[in-house]
Design brief:
β4 and β5 form a beta hairpin. It is rod-shaped, with a radius of gyration of 48 Å. It is built from ten helices and eleven strands. The N and C termini lie far apart (161 Å). α7 packs across α8. The chain is an alpha/beta fold and 444 residues long. Bound molecules: guanosine-5'-triphosphate.
Length: 444
Protein backbone atom coordinates (compact mmCIF):
# COMPACT_ATOMS: atom_id res chain seq x y z
CA UNK A 1 0.00 0.00 0.00
CA UNK A 2 1.26 3.46 -0.76
CA UNK A 3 0.12 6.97 -0.28
CA UNK A 4 0.29 9.49 -3.16
CA UNK A 5 2.04 12.57 -1.74
CA UNK A 6 1.52 14.88 -4.73
CA UNK A 7 3.53 15.89 -7.77
CA UNK A 8 7.28 16.25 -7.72
CA UNK A 9 8.68 19.57 -9.02
CA UNK A 10 5.45 19.96 -10.84
CA UNK A 11 6.63 17.31 -13.36
CA UNK A 12 3.80 15.00 -12.57
CA UNK A 13 6.13 12.46 -10.91
CA UNK A 14 4.33 10.94 -8.00
CA UNK A 15 6.12 10.66 -4.67
CA UNK A 16 4.95 7.56 -2.82
CA UNK A 17 5.37 6.86 0.86
CA UNK A 18 4.96 3.31 2.12
CA UNK A 19 2.32 2.84 4.78
CA UNK A 20 3.16 -0.71 5.91
CA UNK A 21 6.46 -2.16 7.22
CA UNK A 22 8.71 -4.01 4.81
CA UNK A 23 12.14 -5.57 4.95
CA UNK A 24 14.59 -5.24 7.79
CA UNK A 25 12.93 -2.16 9.24
CA UNK A 26 10.84 -4.75 11.14
CA UNK A 27 13.93 -5.96 13.02
CA UNK A 28 13.18 -3.97 16.21
CA UNK A 29 9.64 -5.42 16.24
CA UNK A 30 11.11 -8.93 16.01
CA UNK A 31 13.37 -8.19 18.98
CA UNK A 32 10.51 -6.72 21.01
CA UNK A 33 8.28 -9.74 20.32
CA UNK A 34 11.06 -12.17 21.15
CA UNK A 35 11.91 -10.35 24.39
CA UNK A 36 8.25 -10.27 25.47
CA UNK A 37 7.90 -13.97 24.75
CA UNK A 38 11.04 -14.77 26.70
CA UNK A 39 10.13 -12.42 29.54
CA UNK A 40 12.38 -10.09 31.46
CA UNK A 41 14.29 -10.58 34.65
CA UNK A 42 15.74 -8.12 37.10
CA UNK A 43 17.64 -8.72 40.31
CA UNK A 44 17.74 -6.11 43.05
CA UNK A 45 19.82 -6.15 46.19
CA UNK A 46 18.57 -3.98 49.06
CA UNK A 47 21.20 -3.20 51.66
CA UNK A 48 20.14 -1.27 54.72
CA UNK A 49 19.45 -1.43 58.41
CA UNK A 50 16.55 -3.41 59.81
CA UNK A 51 13.28 -1.51 59.46
CA UNK A 52 14.76 1.23 57.24
CA UNK A 53 11.96 0.78 54.68
CA UNK A 54 13.40 -1.69 52.17
CA UNK A 55 10.27 -3.80 51.67
CA UNK A 56 7.99 -0.79 51.58
CA UNK A 57 10.08 0.87 48.87
CA UNK A 58 10.20 -2.29 46.72
CA UNK A 59 6.41 -2.63 47.08
CA UNK A 60 5.98 1.02 46.11
CA UNK A 61 8.33 0.71 43.14
CA UNK A 62 6.51 -2.29 41.68
CA UNK A 63 3.09 -1.23 42.98
CA UNK A 64 2.57 -4.71 44.40
CA UNK A 65 2.23 -6.01 47.90
CA UNK A 66 5.05 -8.54 48.06
CA UNK A 67 4.25 -10.21 51.34
CA UNK A 68 7.14 -9.98 53.77
CA UNK A 69 7.63 -10.76 57.44
CA UNK A 70 9.44 -8.19 59.53
CA UNK A 71 12.99 -9.07 60.48
CA UNK A 72 14.24 -9.29 64.02
CA UNK A 73 16.95 -6.99 65.39
CA UNK A 74 18.62 -9.87 67.24
CA UNK A 75 20.56 -11.76 64.59
CA UNK A 76 24.13 -12.56 65.61
CA UNK A 77 25.33 -11.89 62.07
CA UNK A 78 24.15 -10.37 58.83
CA UNK A 79 22.17 -12.60 56.50
CA UNK A 80 20.42 -12.32 53.16
CA UNK A 81 16.81 -13.07 52.27
CA UNK A 82 16.29 -14.00 48.60
CA UNK A 83 12.84 -14.07 47.02
CA UNK A 84 11.80 -14.32 43.39
CA UNK A 85 8.45 -13.02 42.15
CA UNK A 86 6.73 -13.37 38.78
CA UNK A 87 5.14 -10.00 37.99
CA UNK A 88 3.02 -8.94 35.06
CA UNK A 89 2.45 -5.38 33.91
CA UNK A 90 0.28 -4.92 30.81
CA UNK A 91 1.22 -8.41 29.59
CA UNK A 92 4.94 -7.78 30.09
CA UNK A 93 6.25 -10.55 32.36
CA UNK A 94 9.02 -9.71 34.80
CA UNK A 95 10.88 -12.19 36.96
CA UNK A 96 11.93 -10.04 39.87
CA UNK A 97 14.44 -11.28 42.42
CA UNK A 98 14.73 -9.21 45.57
CA UNK A 99 17.64 -9.88 47.90
CA UNK A 100 17.44 -8.10 51.25
CA UNK A 101 19.90 -7.86 54.08
CA UNK A 102 18.71 -9.21 57.41
CA UNK A 103 20.18 -7.95 60.67
CA UNK A 104 22.36 -5.39 58.90
CA UNK A 105 23.77 -2.91 61.41
CA UNK A 106 22.35 -4.78 64.42
CA UNK A 107 25.58 -6.33 65.73
CA UNK A 108 27.93 -4.61 68.17
CA UNK A 109 30.93 -5.59 66.09
CA UNK A 110 30.05 -4.47 62.56
CA UNK A 111 33.47 -5.18 61.07
CA UNK A 112 32.43 -8.17 58.96
CA UNK A 113 28.87 -7.01 58.21
CA UNK A 114 29.66 -6.42 54.55
CA UNK A 115 31.18 -9.89 54.01
CA UNK A 116 27.92 -11.85 53.44
CA UNK A 117 26.93 -9.27 50.82
CA UNK A 118 30.30 -9.56 49.04
CA UNK A 119 30.12 -13.36 49.22
CA UNK A 120 26.62 -13.39 47.78
CA UNK A 121 27.59 -11.14 44.84
CA UNK A 122 30.66 -13.28 44.09
CA UNK A 123 28.68 -16.51 44.38
CA UNK A 124 26.28 -15.33 41.66
CA UNK A 125 29.20 -14.40 39.37
CA UNK A 126 30.82 -17.76 40.08
CA UNK A 127 27.59 -19.62 39.23
CA UNK A 128 27.39 -17.74 35.93
CA UNK A 129 31.07 -18.43 35.20
CA UNK A 130 30.52 -22.13 35.89
CA UNK A 131 27.62 -22.12 33.43
CA UNK A 132 29.79 -20.39 30.83
CA UNK A 133 32.54 -22.95 31.29
CA UNK A 134 30.30 -25.94 30.69
CA UNK A 135 30.79 -27.77 27.41
CA UNK A 136 27.04 -27.91 26.87
CA UNK A 137 26.02 -24.54 28.23
CA UNK A 138 22.49 -23.24 28.10
CA UNK A 139 22.89 -19.58 28.88
CA UNK A 140 19.63 -18.79 27.08
CA UNK A 141 17.60 -20.78 29.66
CA UNK A 142 19.92 -20.08 32.56
CA UNK A 143 18.35 -18.18 35.45
CA UNK A 144 20.86 -15.39 35.76
CA UNK A 145 20.97 -14.50 39.44
CA UNK A 146 23.68 -11.84 39.14
CA UNK A 147 22.61 -8.68 40.94
CA UNK A 148 21.85 -5.85 38.54
CA UNK A 149 21.52 -3.07 41.07
CA UNK A 150 22.15 -2.48 44.74
CA UNK A 151 19.80 -0.01 46.38
CA UNK A 152 21.81 1.18 49.34
CA UNK A 153 19.52 2.57 52.05
CA UNK A 154 21.21 5.34 54.00
CA UNK A 155 19.78 6.09 57.44
CA UNK A 156 18.41 9.67 57.48
CA UNK A 157 20.65 10.99 60.22
CA UNK A 158 21.13 14.35 58.50
CA UNK A 159 24.83 14.23 59.35
CA UNK A 160 26.98 11.98 57.21
CA UNK A 161 27.52 8.36 56.24
CA UNK A 162 28.29 5.80 58.94
CA UNK A 163 31.56 3.90 58.75
CA UNK A 164 29.56 0.73 58.04
CA UNK A 165 28.05 2.42 54.96
CA UNK A 166 31.49 3.44 53.67
CA UNK A 167 33.02 0.05 54.38
CA UNK A 168 30.23 -1.88 52.67
CA UNK A 169 30.02 0.38 49.64
CA UNK A 170 33.81 0.35 49.26
CA UNK A 171 33.78 -3.44 49.21
CA UNK A 172 30.94 -3.88 46.76
CA UNK A 173 31.38 -0.99 44.34
CA UNK A 174 33.45 -3.11 41.88
CA UNK A 175 30.91 -5.88 42.06
CA UNK A 176 27.55 -4.17 41.60
CA UNK A 177 25.88 -0.97 40.40
CA UNK A 178 25.24 1.00 43.59
CA UNK A 179 22.41 3.50 43.75
CA UNK A 180 22.47 5.30 47.10
CA UNK A 181 19.11 6.25 48.63
CA UNK A 182 18.27 8.33 51.64
CA UNK A 183 15.58 6.21 53.25
CA UNK A 184 12.59 7.70 55.09
CA UNK A 185 13.50 11.07 53.63
CA UNK A 186 10.28 12.51 55.05
CA UNK A 187 12.07 12.79 58.36
CA UNK A 188 14.43 15.51 57.02
CA UNK A 189 13.63 19.12 56.30
CA UNK A 190 14.32 20.49 52.81
CA UNK A 191 17.51 22.30 53.84
CA UNK A 192 18.79 19.45 55.99
CA UNK A 193 18.13 17.04 53.14
CA UNK A 194 20.15 19.04 50.59
CA UNK A 195 23.01 19.45 53.05
CA UNK A 196 22.88 15.74 53.84
CA UNK A 197 22.95 14.88 50.13
CA UNK A 198 26.01 17.10 49.59
CA UNK A 199 27.81 15.57 52.58
CA UNK A 200 27.11 12.05 51.35
CA UNK A 201 28.36 12.76 47.82
CA UNK A 202 31.56 14.42 49.03
CA UNK A 203 32.19 11.50 51.41
CA UNK A 204 31.66 9.00 48.62
CA UNK A 205 34.05 10.93 46.38
CA UNK A 206 36.72 11.39 49.02
CA UNK A 207 36.63 7.66 49.79
CA UNK A 208 36.85 6.74 46.10
CA UNK A 209 33.53 4.90 46.12
CA UNK A 210 32.13 4.31 42.64
CA UNK A 211 28.38 4.58 42.41
CA UNK A 212 26.31 3.83 39.32
CA UNK A 213 26.61 6.50 36.66
CA UNK A 214 23.34 6.91 34.80
CA UNK A 215 24.07 7.08 31.07
CA UNK A 216 23.90 10.75 30.12
CA UNK A 217 21.84 10.10 26.96
CA UNK A 218 19.17 12.59 27.81
CA UNK A 219 18.87 15.70 29.89
CA UNK A 220 17.08 14.06 32.79
CA UNK A 221 19.71 11.38 33.32
CA UNK A 222 22.57 13.83 32.84
CA UNK A 223 20.93 15.98 35.47
CA UNK A 224 20.62 12.99 37.81
CA UNK A 225 24.36 12.42 37.59
CA UNK A 226 25.51 15.98 37.88
CA UNK A 227 22.95 17.95 39.89
CA UNK A 228 22.29 17.54 43.56
CA UNK A 229 19.72 14.80 42.94
CA UNK A 230 21.91 11.92 44.11
CA UNK A 231 21.48 10.21 46.50
CA UNK A 232 17.73 9.92 45.88
CA UNK A 233 15.64 10.97 48.84
CA UNK A 234 12.88 8.38 48.91
CA UNK A 235 9.71 7.76 50.80
CA UNK A 236 7.79 4.53 50.47
CA UNK A 237 4.15 3.79 51.12
CA UNK A 238 1.42 1.54 49.81
CA UNK A 239 -1.22 3.52 51.67
CA UNK A 240 -3.94 5.27 49.63
CA UNK A 241 -4.57 8.75 51.04
CA UNK A 242 -7.24 11.25 50.01
CA UNK A 243 -5.86 14.57 48.77
CA UNK A 244 -8.66 16.88 47.67
CA UNK A 245 -10.77 14.70 45.42
CA UNK A 246 -7.94 12.35 44.43
CA UNK A 247 -6.65 9.21 46.08
CA UNK A 248 -2.85 9.16 46.09
CA UNK A 249 -0.19 6.96 47.57
CA UNK A 250 1.33 8.71 50.53
CA UNK A 251 1.90 8.96 54.22
CA UNK A 252 -0.58 10.73 56.40
CA UNK A 253 0.82 12.93 59.17
CA UNK A 254 -0.86 15.19 61.71
CA UNK A 255 0.45 18.15 59.74
CA UNK A 256 -0.56 16.91 56.30
CA UNK A 257 0.03 14.29 53.61
CA UNK A 258 3.32 13.35 52.00
CA UNK A 259 2.61 12.22 48.47
CA UNK A 260 5.08 9.56 47.38
CA UNK A 261 4.58 10.35 43.68
CA UNK A 262 4.83 14.11 44.06
CA UNK A 263 8.24 15.28 42.83
CA UNK A 264 8.12 18.25 45.21
CA UNK A 265 7.84 15.92 48.18
CA UNK A 266 10.54 13.32 47.40
CA UNK A 267 12.65 11.77 44.61
CA UNK A 268 10.64 8.53 44.38
CA UNK A 269 9.27 9.22 40.86
CA UNK A 270 12.72 10.16 39.55
CA UNK A 271 14.19 6.99 41.04
CA UNK A 272 11.43 4.83 39.57
CA UNK A 273 11.81 6.44 36.11
CA UNK A 274 15.59 6.19 36.05
CA UNK A 275 15.68 2.71 37.54
CA UNK A 276 12.82 0.93 35.80
CA UNK A 277 11.79 2.97 32.74
CA UNK A 278 15.10 4.26 31.42
CA UNK A 279 18.05 2.30 32.71
CA UNK A 280 17.04 -1.26 33.58
CA UNK A 281 18.75 -2.57 30.43
CA UNK A 282 21.83 -0.43 31.04
CA UNK A 283 22.10 -1.75 34.60
CA UNK A 284 22.02 -5.28 33.23
CA UNK A 285 24.60 -4.41 30.56
CA UNK A 286 26.90 -2.82 33.13
CA UNK A 287 26.55 -5.87 35.36
CA UNK A 288 27.69 -8.12 32.54
CA UNK A 289 30.24 -5.98 30.74
CA UNK A 290 31.82 -4.27 33.73
CA UNK A 291 31.33 -6.09 37.03
CA UNK A 292 31.11 -9.67 35.79
CA UNK A 293 33.96 -9.07 33.33
CA UNK A 294 36.11 -7.81 36.20
CA UNK A 295 35.29 -10.91 38.29
CA UNK A 296 35.89 -13.25 35.36
CA UNK A 297 39.22 -11.68 34.45
CA UNK A 298 40.58 -11.88 37.98
CA UNK A 299 39.27 -15.45 38.36
CA UNK A 300 40.91 -16.63 35.15
CA UNK A 301 44.12 -14.78 35.93
CA UNK A 302 44.25 -16.59 39.27
CA UNK A 303 44.01 -19.82 37.30
CA UNK A 304 47.11 -18.77 35.37
CA UNK A 305 45.48 -17.74 32.10
CA UNK A 306 46.85 -14.86 30.12
CA UNK A 307 46.07 -13.16 26.83
CA UNK A 308 49.74 -13.53 25.89
CA UNK A 309 50.92 -16.72 24.25
CA UNK A 310 54.28 -18.44 24.93
CA UNK A 311 55.86 -16.22 22.25
CA UNK A 312 54.58 -13.18 24.16
CA UNK A 313 52.10 -12.47 21.39
CA UNK A 314 48.43 -11.97 22.04
CA UNK A 315 46.55 -15.30 21.92
CA UNK A 316 44.49 -14.39 18.84
CA UNK A 317 41.04 -12.94 19.48
CA UNK A 318 39.97 -15.97 21.46
CA UNK A 319 38.29 -15.17 24.71
CA UNK A 320 39.31 -16.74 27.98
CA UNK A 321 36.15 -18.78 27.84
CA UNK A 322 37.17 -20.26 24.51
CA UNK A 323 40.62 -21.08 25.88
CA UNK A 324 39.05 -22.75 28.90
CA UNK A 325 36.63 -24.61 26.66
CA UNK A 326 39.49 -25.92 24.55
CA UNK A 327 41.40 -26.96 27.64
CA UNK A 328 38.52 -28.49 29.46
CA UNK A 329 37.13 -30.17 26.37
CA UNK A 330 40.43 -31.99 25.74
CA UNK A 331 39.47 -34.74 28.17
CA UNK A 332 36.85 -36.51 26.07
CA UNK A 333 35.05 -38.37 28.80
CA UNK A 334 34.81 -35.83 31.57
CA UNK A 335 31.31 -34.62 32.29
CA UNK A 336 31.93 -30.91 32.72
CA UNK A 337 28.37 -30.48 33.92
CA UNK A 338 29.66 -31.84 37.20
CA UNK A 339 31.91 -28.82 37.50
CA UNK A 340 28.94 -26.76 38.55
CA UNK A 341 28.39 -28.69 41.77
CA UNK A 342 27.92 -26.31 44.65
CA UNK A 343 30.11 -28.36 46.98
CA UNK A 344 33.35 -27.51 45.25
CA UNK A 345 33.87 -23.94 46.20
CA UNK A 346 37.16 -23.14 44.65
CA UNK A 347 37.31 -23.31 40.90
CA UNK A 348 41.07 -23.86 40.71
CA UNK A 349 40.86 -26.80 43.07
CA UNK A 350 37.97 -28.15 41.09
CA UNK A 351 39.86 -27.75 37.81
CA UNK A 352 42.89 -29.52 39.29
CA UNK A 353 40.64 -32.27 40.64
CA UNK A 354 39.08 -32.73 37.22
CA UNK A 355 42.49 -32.83 35.58
CA UNK A 356 43.66 -35.42 38.08
CA UNK A 357 40.48 -37.39 37.53
CA UNK A 358 41.08 -37.30 33.78
CA UNK A 359 44.70 -38.32 34.24
CA UNK A 360 43.68 -41.27 36.41
CA UNK A 361 41.00 -42.24 33.96
CA UNK A 362 43.57 -42.18 31.11
CA UNK A 363 45.86 -44.42 33.11
CA UNK A 364 43.04 -46.79 33.91
CA UNK A 365 42.06 -46.95 30.26
CA UNK A 366 45.67 -47.47 29.17
CA UNK A 367 45.98 -50.35 31.66
CA UNK A 368 42.72 -51.84 30.45
CA UNK A 369 43.90 -51.54 26.84
CA UNK A 370 47.19 -53.25 27.70
CA UNK A 371 45.34 -56.10 29.41
CA UNK A 372 42.96 -56.52 26.49
CA UNK A 373 45.88 -56.46 24.05
CA UNK A 374 47.80 -59.11 26.01
CA UNK A 375 44.70 -61.27 26.25
CA UNK A 376 44.11 -61.06 22.51
CA UNK A 377 47.77 -61.81 21.75
CA UNK A 378 47.54 -64.89 23.96
CA UNK A 379 44.36 -66.00 22.24
CA UNK A 380 45.96 -65.51 18.81
CA UNK A 381 49.05 -67.42 19.89
CA UNK A 382 46.89 -70.33 20.99
CA UNK A 383 44.98 -70.29 17.70
CA UNK A 384 48.25 -70.26 15.75
CA UNK A 385 49.64 -73.10 17.84
CA UNK A 386 46.52 -75.19 17.22
CA UNK A 387 46.68 -74.48 13.48
CA UNK A 388 50.40 -75.36 13.41
CA UNK A 389 49.79 -78.60 15.29
CA UNK A 390 46.99 -79.53 12.94
CA UNK A 391 49.26 -78.85 9.95
CA UNK A 392 52.08 -80.88 11.53
CA UNK A 393 49.72 -83.76 12.15
CA UNK A 394 48.50 -83.61 8.58
CA UNK A 395 52.10 -83.52 7.34
CA UNK A 396 53.07 -86.51 9.51
CA UNK A 397 50.05 -88.43 8.33
CA UNK A 398 50.83 -87.76 4.66
CA UNK A 399 54.50 -88.59 5.26
CA UNK A 400 53.53 -91.92 6.82
CA UNK A 401 51.21 -92.75 3.93
CA UNK A 402 53.95 -91.85 1.46
CA UNK A 403 56.49 -94.01 3.27
CA UNK A 404 54.07 -96.92 3.33
CA UNK A 405 53.55 -96.46 -0.43
CA UNK A 406 57.34 -96.39 -0.98
CA UNK A 407 57.74 -99.55 1.05
CA UNK A 408 54.95 -101.23 -0.90
CA UNK A 409 56.54 -100.22 -4.21
CA UNK A 410 59.95 -101.37 -3.01
CA UNK A 411 58.47 -104.76 -2.15
CA UNK A 412 56.80 -105.03 -5.51
CA UNK A 413 60.04 -104.08 -7.29
CA UNK A 414 61.94 -106.65 -5.31
CA UNK A 415 59.34 -109.26 -6.20
CA UNK A 416 59.51 -108.26 -9.85
CA UNK A 417 63.29 -108.36 -9.83
CA UNK A 418 63.12 -111.86 -8.29
CA UNK A 419 60.64 -112.90 -10.94
CA UNK A 420 62.95 -111.50 -13.65
CA UNK A 421 65.89 -113.41 -12.20
CA UNK A 422 63.77 -116.55 -12.06
CA UNK A 423 62.66 -115.92 -15.58
CA UNK A 424 66.25 -115.55 -16.81
CA UNK A 425 67.20 -118.63 -14.90
CA UNK A 426 64.39 -120.58 -16.48
CA UNK A 427 65.26 -119.17 -19.86
CA UNK A 428 68.89 -120.14 -19.47
CA UNK A 429 67.86 -123.60 -18.32
CA UNK A 430 65.51 -123.93 -21.22
CA UNK A 431 68.11 -122.72 -23.64
CA UNK A 432 70.71 -125.16 -22.32
CA UNK A 433 68.12 -127.97 -22.42
CA UNK A 434 67.29 -127.04 -25.97
CA UNK A 435 70.96 -126.99 -26.91
CA UNK A 436 71.42 -130.43 -25.32
CA UNK A 437 68.53 -131.79 -27.35
CA UNK A 438 69.97 -130.40 -30.56
CA UNK A 439 73.37 -131.91 -29.80
CA UNK A 440 71.81 -135.29 -29.08
CA UNK A 441 69.86 -135.15 -32.30
CA UNK A 442 72.94 -134.37 -34.31
CA UNK A 443 74.69 -137.25 -32.73
CA UNK A 444 71.91 -139.59 -33.63
P1 LIG B 1 13.11 -5.46 57.57
O1 LIG B 1 12.90 -6.27 56.34
O2 LIG B 1 12.35 -5.98 58.72
O3 LIG B 1 14.54 -5.16 57.84
O4 LIG B 1 12.41 -4.03 57.33
P2 LIG B 1 12.45 -3.12 56.06
O5 LIG B 1 13.73 -2.46 55.90
O6 LIG B 1 11.95 -3.92 54.90
O7 LIG B 1 11.38 -2.03 56.45
P3 LIG B 1 9.85 -2.01 56.17
O8 LIG B 1 9.57 -1.69 54.76
O9 LIG B 1 9.23 -3.23 56.73
O10 LIG B 1 9.41 -0.72 57.01
C1 LIG B 1 9.57 -0.63 58.40
C2 LIG B 1 8.68 0.48 58.93
O11 LIG B 1 9.08 1.72 58.37
C3 LIG B 1 7.22 0.31 58.59
O12 LIG B 1 6.45 0.71 59.66
C4 LIG B 1 6.99 1.27 57.43
O13 LIG B 1 5.68 1.78 57.38
C5 LIG B 1 7.97 2.38 57.76
N1 LIG B 1 8.40 3.07 56.57
C6 LIG B 1 8.72 2.49 55.39
N2 LIG B 1 9.09 3.43 54.51
C7 LIG B 1 9.01 4.62 55.17
C8 LIG B 1 9.27 5.96 54.79
O14 LIG B 1 9.67 6.26 53.68
N3 LIG B 1 9.08 6.92 55.75
C9 LIG B 1 8.64 6.63 56.98
N4 LIG B 1 8.48 7.61 57.82
N5 LIG B 1 8.40 5.39 57.38
C10 LIG B 1 8.57 4.39 56.48
Amino acid sequence: RAEIRGSHFGLGIRCLTTLGHFGFECLPTQLVNKSIQKGFSFNILCVGETGIGKSTLINTLFNTNLKENKSSHFYSKVGLKVKTYELLERNIPLKLTVVKTVGYGDQINKEASYQPVVDYLDAQFEAYLQEELKIKRSLADYHDSRIHVCLYFITPTGHSLKSLDLLTMKNIDRRVNIIPLIAKADSLSKNDLQRFKNNIMSELNSNGIQIYQFPADDEATAQANSSGLLPFAVVGSMEEVKVGKRMVRGRHYPWGVLQVENENHCDFVKLRDLLLCTNMEDLKDQTHSQHYECYRTSRLQKLGFSDMGPDNQPVSAQSYTDVINVLVSTPPHIEIRGVATQNIGDFQEMYEAKRQEFHNQCQREEEELKQTFMQRVKEKELTFKDAEKELQDKFEHLKRIQQEEILKLEEERRKLEEQIIDFYKMKAASESAQAQVCTNLKKD
